[in-house]
């Protein structure tokens, strides 16, 4: 996983969690009354977003040295290319 794909995945997971939470809590104040099935579906969506975000934070912590090494290699490659 690259740093760019991690950022995209992290923003997607955070968005999923926020949207799931907003939709779930919106069911408390809906005009048609409380819909338990929709509430639990949205809570499941919220939980999956939080789990995905937690996993991505773990990936970031464990892959950061590899990302730094890769960026160092790219910077070295760019510097060599400019010298030619």
What series of H and E elements makes up the topology? HH
Number of separate helices: 2
Rg is 20 Å
Query: How far is the N terminus from the C terminus?
Result: 31 Å
The tally of strands reads 0
Beta-strand proportion:
under 5%
Poorly predicted ranges: none
Overall average residue pLDDT:
83
Shape: rod-shaped
Judged by helices, strands and strand pairing, the structural class is mainly alpha
The helical percent reads over 70%
Biggest beta sheet summary: none
Indicate how many domains the architecture comprises.
1
Structural topology:
Blueprint: H1 3-26, H2 36-83
Written description of the protein model:
The protein is mainly α. The radius of gyration is 20 Å and the shape is rod-shaped. The protein contains two helices and no strands. The chain has one domain (3-68). It has helices at 3-26, 36-83.
State the gist of this model.
This protein is mainly alpha-helical and 84 residues long.
Features:
84 residues; mainly alpha; 2 helices
């Amino acid at each position: 996983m690259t740093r760019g794909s991690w950022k995209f995945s992290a923003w997607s997971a955070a968005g999923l969690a926020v949207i799931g939470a907003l939709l779930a809590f919106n069911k408390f104040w809906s005009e048609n009354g409380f819909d338990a099935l929709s509430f639990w579906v949205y809570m499941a969506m919220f939980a999956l977003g939080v789990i995905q975000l937690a996993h991505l934070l773990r990936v970031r912590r464990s892959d950061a040295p590899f990302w730094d090494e890769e960026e160092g290699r790219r910077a070295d490659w760019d510097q060599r290319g400019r010298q030619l």
